[in-house]
Specification:
CATH topology: Rossmann fold
Structural class: alpha/beta
CATH class: Alpha Beta
CATH superfamily: Vaccinia Virus protein VP39
Strand content: 15-25%
Number of helices: 10
Helix content: 25-40%
Strand order of the largest sheet: 3-2-1-4-5-7-6
Shape: globular
Length: 259
């Protein structure tokens, strides 16, 4: 699946797009980068909403699983005082994310490394929060995924998640952002996902359906456009139908790891 996501020259494309949009690429801020480094549904506004629901305290140790280019991680570091470890399976995203973090002089608060969400190489109980936005759609074994999240968290730690899930109308319309067809897409309904999470040792604190909340407009500097290119047009059209017809629903949730 990494072949679907890998992109070379991402850093150069991002910086060129930001420069064309009038940003000073030699003095970038988290806000300057937001359009280009939040590669998930809802962009930075969705990250901001989820972070408010999580109510992080300064110094919170966060494991960002599937953190891509690192936009959410840098946001959590700068705006909420968190220390964030980003893990992503796609090497080009990790390289690009690390370079952007260095540009913003945030390497003391945000680190990036290649890793598999199903085999997290972290000590048990070493994080206060696991953060994940739109990262589990290609993963069939949800039980193993959430068991790994629980293992990474200390008792009382929180799982903070945003995830597309299967709506009441099926099947979904392809292509979607994460898959050209059904062979690489593994969505479950909100009820099924909630059951998996609870059986993995979590208790739900927040469970919000944001399907009808509009996302930011796409521009040439938007992360989806920079990564997906011309393929994005068909994806957006399918996405609009999937959400309008409730084939896909978008859930944000905060859960507590039980002792």
């Amino acid at each position: 699946m990494t072949g679907y996501w890998e992109r070379e020259g991402l850093l150069e494309r991002i910086l060129a797009a930001l420069a064309a949009a009038g940003k000073n690429v030699d003095a970038l801020t988290v806000e300057d980068l937001a359009e280009a480094d939040h590669f998930h549904g809802g962009g930075k506004p969705a990250t901001d909403r989820l972070a408010r629901r999580a109510a992080f305290s300064p110094g919170t140790r966060v494991l960002d699983v599937g953190g891509g280019l690192g936009g959410p991680a840098r946001t959590l570091a700068v705006e909420h005082g968190c220390h964030v470890t980003v893990v992503d399976l796609t090497e080009s995203y990790v390289r690009t994310g690390r370079a952007l973090t260095e540009r913003l002089e945030l390497s003391d608060r945000v680190t990036h490394r290649v890793g598999d969400a199903l085999a997290l190489d972290v000590p048990p109980g070493s994080f206060d929060a696991v953060w994940t936005q739109n990262s589990g759609m290609n993963i069939a074994n949800k039980e193993r995924l959430y068991a790994g999240f629980a293992r990474a968290l200390r008792p009382g730690g929180r799982l903070v998640t945003q995830e597309p899930m299967a709506g009441p109308v099926q099947p979904i319309v392809y292509p979607v952002m994460w898959a050209r067809d059904a062979t690489a897409s593994f969505l479950r309904s909100p009820d099924e996902m909630r059951t998996v999470m609870e059986r993995s040792g979590f208790r739900v604190q927040v469970w919000d359906d944001l399907t009808e909340v509009p996302g930011p407009a796409m521009t040439q500097a938007s992360a989806p456009r920079l990564i997906m290119g011309d393929a994005l047009d068909a994806i957006v059209a399918a996405q609009q139908r999937n959400r309008a017809e409730r084939r896909i629903v978008m859930i944000q949730a905060v859960l507590e790891r039980l002792p």
